[in-house]
Amino acid sequence: MDAQRPYQIHLDTRFAPLELIDVQALVEASRDPWYNQTLCRVNDCVVRLGVVQGQFHWHKHDREDEFFYVVEGRFVIELEGRRVELAPRQGMTVPKGVMHRTGAPERTVILMIEGAAVKPTGD
Fold first, then answer.
1. For residues 52 and 98, what is the distance between their CA atoms, to the nearest angstrom?
2. In Å, what is the CA distance from 38 to each residue of 25, 42, 68, 87, 113?
3. Interatomic CA distance for residues 90 and 64, integer angstroms
4. Domain limits of the chain?
5. Residue 28 burial (CB < 10 Å; 0-12/13-18/19+)?
6. Global pTM?
C-alpha cells in the first residue's frame, strides 16, 4: 500500500471458470478503505470487485473503456465538467481516453468490467 495512494489492488485472477464466486464473502472479509480484486476473466475482459470508500485519483485509460456497476452504497464518477452519482443497481461506462476520478462517500461495493490489460490506476 502506497501512503499517498492507499489502494489494495489485486490483479491476480482469483477464480477460474466454473468456480463459484461468493461476492458477499469477499465484501465481508475486506478491511481496506479501497480494495480491488480481479474476480475472473471473460474472454479478453476481467470482472473486478471493488469495496471502496474515499476518493481515487484522476486518471484515464488510453485504449479501453471501463464499466462500473454499483451493488450497494453510492459511487461518484467525476469527469471534466460533469459529476455522476450512481446508486445501487445503476451503472455507467467511462469511454477510453476520458479523464475521470471515482469516489465513494460511504463504504460501497462495485463491480467493474474492463479489458484484461487495463491498469486500474490509469495509463
1. 21
2. 15, 11, 14, 22, 10
3. 21
4. 8-115
5. exposed
6. 0.91
User: In 3D, which of 101, 96, 97, 98 has the Cα closest to residue 114?
Assistant: 96
3-state helix, strand, coil in the chain (%, to 5): 5, 50, 45
Please determine, for residue 3, whether its predicted confidence score (pLDDT) is greater than 50. no
For residues 111 and 36, give the distance between their C-alpha atoms in angstroms, rounded to a whole number. Answer: 9
Distance of CA 28 to the CA centre of its chain: 17
Q: What pLDDT digit, counting tens, does each position of 8-60 carry?
A: 888 999 999 999 999 999 999 999 989 999 999 999 999 999 999 999 999 99
CATH of 8-115, one of 1.10.357.10, 3.40.50.2000, 1.10.510.10, 2.60.120.10: 2.60.120.10
